[in-house]
Each structure stands twice: as C-alpha cells, then as structure tokens.
Amino acid sequence: MTKTKNGLFVVATPIGNLGDMSVRAQEILTTVDKIACEDTRVTGKLLSRFSINTPMTLYHDHNAGRVRAGVLAELRQGAAIALVSDAGMPTISDPGYKLVKACIEDNIPLTVLPGANAALTGLVQSGLPTDRFLFQGYLPVKSGARLSALVELSCIPATLIFYETGKRLAKSLADMVSVLGDRPAAVARELTKLHEEVRRGS
Length: 202
Known about the structure:
It contains 7 helices and 9 strands. The chain is of the alpha/beta class. The termini are far apart.
C-alpha cells in the first residue's frame, strides 16, 4: 500500500461495533507514519483486529501540552500522523482540538475522516427532534456547578445532548428535572454494542 500524503489525519473509530470501521480509516491508519492515540491498549486492540502495524504514540488530556510540540515538529518535517480517540470522533469531548487548531495556524495539511459518534447516534436513537440540537458534553461533577450550567441551557429551544457517567446519572437527571422541568428525554448506553439500551420517557 502506498504511503499517504503528509499532514494530520483526524480519524473516527467505532464507538463499540468494530463493523463500523470504515475502509478509508483502515487505509489511512495503515499508511501513516504514526498514530497518536489516548490509550495504546485500546487502540492496539483495534489495530490488531484489522492487522494494522503502524507505530503508536500517546496523546491524551494529561500529556497533550507536553507532547503537542513534538507532534507538530514531525508534521512540519513532512510526517503523516493520524489522531484517534478511544472511540468515536476525536476532539469531541476528547483531546485534539488544540492540535487541530495549531495545524490550521501553521498551514499543515489537515484531513478529517468522518465516522461513528456517540452523541449523534444517541440523538437519532432517542427519537427526540433532530432539526435543532445542542451538544453540551459532560456536565460539572458538583451539583451546584451542574445546576448553574443547566440554568444557562434552560432557555435554548433545542434538544440537549449530554454525556454522563453511570455513577452520576441519577443525580444529573434529578438536577435536570429541577431546572429543565418535565420534558421528553432519553438515556442511551452501550450504543452499537451487543447490550445497547435506550430508555425513553419524561
């Protein structure tokens, strides 16, 4: 397979079902010089499944500030580097935004390979209106800050999309009811996986 052109390739990966890995994503991950990933164990399993042997380097929330300059230096020298997250589209509630921004500022070629995304998959599965929506991501951990964030969102006439952990879900839902009121809602988990579940109600 021919080596790909230089630049940063932002590559979406499956959010659960490996059958959602695109042929184009497989080709890019096979032909780049390096893959920047959140966790080499997680990405390693994905690469193994598709017999991809490209070297990996860690790029996550805790090291991005330190590692970014080195990645940019390699890109300036003509390297082809793919950026992946553990699941879904990189930079969406995942590290990578600052790297993408720096590439644009430095005129480093940037290519985005679309694919699986938990927020949009959950939105469609919910059955809630899709013509206007806002993706909030994770709400603050502490209830006071979470309530304040919800107050800011309460006047937005759109379907609101949140990410939340299983441990915090009940408390977050209680705070949502107290601020947003009784409205149609859905909770989705394990999307695209064997035990996918969506609960819809008020």
